[in-house]
Amino acid sequence: MKIEIIFLGTGSHIPTATRNHTGILVSFGSENILVDCGEGIQRQFKIARINPNKLSRILISHWHGDHILGLPGLLETLAVSEYSKTLYIYGPKGIGEKLRFLEKLYGKFKLNYNIKEISHGKLIDEKEFYIEAIPMSHGIPTNAYSIVLKDKLRLNKNKIKKLKLPNSPLLGKLQKGKDITYKGKKISAKSVSYLEKGKKVTIIMDTLMNDKAIKIAKNSDLLICESTYSSRHEEKAREYKHLTSRQSAIIAKRAKVKKLILIHISHRYEKNAEIVLEEAKKIFKNTFLVNDFDKVII
């Protein structure tokens, strides 16, 4: 199973002409998971030609404006678009109360949604994937998230065909790792199957440098990490509890990730964002800087 990631917003607290507030859409199987919901997210969906009614879940990293100002509009859009599913919304402690306050301001959102507050551990564990959270250091409750596709036992179609095994419950047993007997012959699951390794995407938004960021990113196929400042503004990064691109690269290197994507870029680098990228690449070579509407598939 492939994971497709579309960057609906890659800017930080002040949007620019080219970078909207943060929004990352992670899609695989029947899941369409929006990570953070910055202002103007509805328009970003339109430009990307994506139907927001396909959303299954929203993960909120923290309750700062550039990460949640799009929520009222998006929920209202889903309501008037006759969203028929239950929308699951996850975030750190306090988001339930804040969403209820939004309803006092805008009126009750006429759609089914379920809120779950979590600061550490698995927030969902399904047959094919799980999502876990770990707290970051940003002055208010803030989560980083990992979306993990589990390892899966796959059957070798050529071997199945060679053994002339019928399309029957026997194949289901083999896929579960159970040995079978067919026409008096014992067939071991290991002899006709292989393990398809899972995939891990970690998303770290606003935070100071901390060991928990390295922990949750460990062995990720892809790390998407806020890189609000370049090292020349490291003091400002510390003041506002953000990462520099150099620090993001250090996290990637120590966590032994395969690929790093920089996001949440300050408006001050609107005309020279390559500075942020170049600093990171000196430490972690396989680093990329994305723009709004870029797509990555792993």
Main features:
298 residues; Metallo-beta-lactamase, Chain A; seven-stranded mixed beta sheet; 10 helices; 18 strands
Description:
The model has no long low-confidence stretch (mean pLDDT 94). 41% of the residues are buried. Strands 6-5-4-3-2-1-18 form a 7-stranded mixed sheet. Strands 7-8-9-14-15-16-17 form a 7-stranded mixed sheet. A two-stranded antiparallel sheet has the order 10-13. It contains 10 helices and 18 strands. The protein has helices spanning 41-47, 65-68, 71-80, 95-106, 157-162, 169-175, 211-217, 234-239, 245-255, 274-281, and strands at 4-9, 23-28, 31-35, 57-59, 87-91, 113-117, 121-125, 129-135, 143-149, 152-155, 180-182, 185-187, 193-196, 199-204, 222-226, 260-263, 287-289, 295-297. With 298 residues, it is an alpha/beta fold. The chain folds into 2 domains: 4-151 and 197-297, Metallo-beta-lactamase, Chain A (4-Layer Sandwich), CATH 3.60.15.10; 153-193, no CATH class.
Strand order of the largest sheet: 6-5-4-3-2-1-18
N-to-C terminal Cα separation, in Å? 9 Å
State mean pLDDT (0 to 100 scale): 94
Largest sheet geometry: 7 strands, mixed
Low-confidence stretches: none
Going by CATH, the architecture of the largest domain would be 4-Layer Sandwich
Write down the Rg: 21 Å
Secondary-structure-derived class: alpha/beta
By CATH, the superfamily of the largest domain comes out as Ribonuclease Z/Hydroxyacylglutathione hydrolase-like
Q: CATH class of the largest domain, anyone? A: Alpha Beta
Percent helix among the residues? 25-40%
Order of H and E elements: EEEHEHHEHEEEEEHHEEEEHEHHEHEE
Q: Per the principal axes of the C-alpha atoms, what is the gross shape? A: globular
Number of strands: 18
Number of domains: 2
CATH topology of the largest domain: Metallo-beta-lactamase, Chain A
Q: What count of helical segments does DSSP give?
A: 10
What fraction strand?
25-35%
